[in-house]
Amino acid sequence: MDRQNPQKNPPHHAPSTPVEWSRIDTVLFDMDGTLLDLHFDNRFWRELIPQEYIRCQPDDPECARRRLEDEMQRVRGKLEWYCVDHWTRFTGLDILGLKRHLAHHITVKPHAEEVLSALKQAGRQRVLVTNAHPQVYEFKHRLTRIGDRLDQIVSAHNLDCAKEDTSFWERLQGVAPYDPERTLLVDDNLLALASAAGAGLAELRGMRYPDEQGDPMHSEEFELLESLADLLPGPATLANTRGGTPAT
Question: Pick from 143, 168, 166: which is nearest to 157 by CA?
Fold first, then answer.
């Protein structure tokens, strides 16, 4: 959503179906595009990395551009796509070092802290499930302290499997046990939502605006949150629905 130029935003969509909190014990959150604004990652991968990769190969910039685009297409949705080591080897660039150039774009999504705090007070388990490399998570955590508001952090790299793979959700049980029928997954990655659905997770929500300055997402299959505030129809509703009795 373009908050600086609201006239560019599309008409408001109907809100997603409210979560039945009496049926939810665990909430799994994605990081980039869900709890953190995806604007940083879009700028990094769409602008800075192509620019730097081509700059290092001035003899044939068009060939370099195609080579990078082909590799991105080859690994998209796989663990390599999210791997700092893979892109460092492929590009010869200091990937983590370059991230610092755009660090001022790393921001927490609107209402994220409010939602996480309310879930804690209501006794829900809050788990980060991210495809991001552990070094990338640590880098962003140092800037945002987002991990301080979560009960557990799980990187797909620790499970050797990206969230787009259905087996991720089975492997997740080994480090962060959860009941699929009583778990909500919030993720801007539609392929990850599809794999979670295939693994039996009952409650799924996507994000309409992963990038707060970008175009909206659309999905025929999954309900999309206009913002994280959509998770909370009201603090009292959440606090009084855990197992049908007030949370303490």
Answer: 168
